[in-house]
Each structure stands twice: as structure tokens, then as C-alpha cells.
Fold:
Amino acid sequence: MNIKNIIGIITIVLAVSMLTLTFMLVSQGIMFKAAYLKMAMANLYLLIVFSGLYLVETFSNAQKGMSRAIQLLGIMVMFFGVMVSFNWLDFKTMWNIPLIMGVVYITLIELQLLKWEKSKHLLKILGLLTIVSNTYIFAFFLFKLSMIKMGFVFDIAIITSVFSFLIGLMLSNPLKKKDRSGQNIA
Structure:
């Protein structure tokens, strides 16, 4: 069993546990147990990191340096996400740190899947839109901006990021599995 399969299995287990925790929280209503919420927050960080690692391992031809950077950032996101989720690092002051790192992590994965460094024309513009909108999201959490004042722009940034990434994926068609020699197969 190779590392890609192990990461895929862990991702599926985390997704199922996230659904279970979400169901448990929703079924308890307003009187939910805080421990379930803490576990759900930590599980969400882990799920995001392992999903990203699986996507990069399966569908990207990332260079070794970029792959290692994504893995290192993923470990940092998991560490700070779990520490803040369980309040081992003060939640009131540190809540934005794992979100900031998560935005950077997701941006790197998006750019790897879009093969942005090799793209041209419209794909380059869509990648640039993804970077700009994710930079705003990064700044929003870094400076702890108010949803009342900047929420509308935040919503636009998220919608722009998601749609530019999805359109870029459709146009670039990077989700072809690669075989062991690094060649894409259908």
C-alpha cells in the first residue's frame, strides 16, 4: 500500500467522522456539547489538510520543493488547528492563525491543480483571480476585519475564488490520474 492510498483512506475516515460529528451537533440542537464542537473543528482542519494532500499526490505534478512546502504547511495547519480547536492555544487571540494558514494552503493546492505556472491566457487570468481573492480572504482573517463593514467584499472574494478555480479546472482538465512514470492517463 503506497502513501497515496493511505492518505485517501484517512481522508475518507475523516469525512465520515465529520459527517457523524455534524449530525450529532445538529441533533442536539441549541444545548449541544462543546466537546463535539471542538472535535468537529479539529476534524475539519484535518480533513482539509488530508484532502489537499490527496489531491496533490493524485492529480498534480508538483515539483519536490513545492510538494514538501505543501506538506509542511499542511502539518502546521493541522497542529495549530487542533491546538486552537481544543483551546490549548488561546482561542480568543489565536482563532485566525489556522484560518490564515489554511487559506494559504488551499491557495497553493488550487494553483498546483490549475498548473498555474505553466498556464496561458484565460487560465492565467483565472489563476490570478484566485490568488487575488484568496489574498483578500487572507487579509480579512489576518487583520480580523469586521463582517459588518467588509462582509460583502468577503462574500464576493469567496465566490470569485471558488468560481475562478472551478472554471479553471474545467478549462485545464488537470484531474487526469498520473501513472507511475508521471504521464497523465485518462
In short: Helices lie at 3-28, 34-59, 64-85, 91-94, 96-114, 122-142, 147-172.
